[in-house]
Structure formats: C-alpha cells, structure tokens
Amino acid sequence: MDAIEFVTRYPDYFTQLEAVVKPGHLPAIKKLRTLDPHNIVKPEHPFNSEAKAVGVVFRLFVWQLKPVYK
C-alpha cells in the first residue's frame, strides 16, 4: 500500500473507528476527519500492510483523546 491508497481509503478508516468507539469519542473523530490526509503522510511513504495504515489513523485518534484523559 502506498500513500495514494492511504489518502483514498482515509475516510473509510474513520468509519471503521466510529463502529467501535464510545459515542462520547465521536467528536474527536469528526475533528480528525477534517484533516487533509495529504498532510499526514508523504507521497513516498510506503505501508507494509493496510493494518499499518489503520494504525496511523488510530494513533491520531489516541493523540486527540490525550487531553481528555489527563
């Protein structure tokens, strides 16, 4: 998987995440959806698997929640 595929699938990753998180965390996902995926990965960034790409989105989500749990 390359960066172009990541950009294309980016919205789908949030759909997957929304299916498994608490409703109270949905605003964090909504905010992350506004990020431009082109600014998250460089064009030459390869992913070893789709799981690695999903991991990038998951880490963004966790970082978004850090202030809530401090």
Characterization of the model:
The chain is mostly helical and about 70 residues long. It has one domain (about 5-70). The chain contains three helices and no strands. It starts with a helix and ends in a 5-residue tail after the last helix.
- Which residue ranges are poorly predicted, with pLDDT under 50 across at least 5 consecutive positions? none
**What share of the residues does DSSP label as strand, in percent?**
under 5%
The overall number of domains is 1
Number of helices: 3
Which structural class best describes the helix and strand composition? Answer: mainly alpha
Annotation, overall tally of beta strands: 0
Mind summarizing the main beta sheet? none
N- to C-terminal distance: 35 Å
Shape: globular
Cα-atom radius of gyration: 12 Å
Order of helices and strands: HHH
- Helical content class: 55-70%
Mean pLDDT: 89
Name its key features.
70 residues, mainly alpha, globular
Give the helix/strand layout.
Layout: H1 3-18, H2 26-33, H3 50-65
Quick description:
The protein has about 70 residues and is mostly helical. The chain has 3 helices and no strands.
